[in-house]
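As a warm-up, study this chain.
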Amino acid sequence: MANNPYDEMFRNIARLMEKILNDMPLHDPKIIGFTIISGSPEEAPYLDPSGEDGGEESEFEVVEGDDCIYITAAVDARAQGAPYVTFQEESVTLCTGGDEETIIDLDCEIDVPHSFYNVQHGVIDAVCLKKSAPDEIVQS
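Now compare it with the structure written out below.
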């Protein structure tokens, strides 16, 4: 079997996790969540989680995959309203809190009933499933 180019990275992550868990107190440790970013495509926009860009406009990241479009944005913790996402066939309305909404135009149609979003730890993640062509067979 050929070597996976990411084998060394995964071995390093495993060693790091083992060290972290060994150094934790003996009571039941819990890992709430983490992100591993090894790099991004050159066209992908950079999302600054600190939000210190000086502008009032909301920052978001859109990444297109084969079957889905992923949208990520930081939630405004100071805003009065709850964050939400509204899906339309060719666009998404993103509200990271408060009254301001951002309309994101998409390059393809999405399956509105099966698209969803989640707000957790100050980040809103939307997953837009791409609509399959009428003659395309969808495997489940």
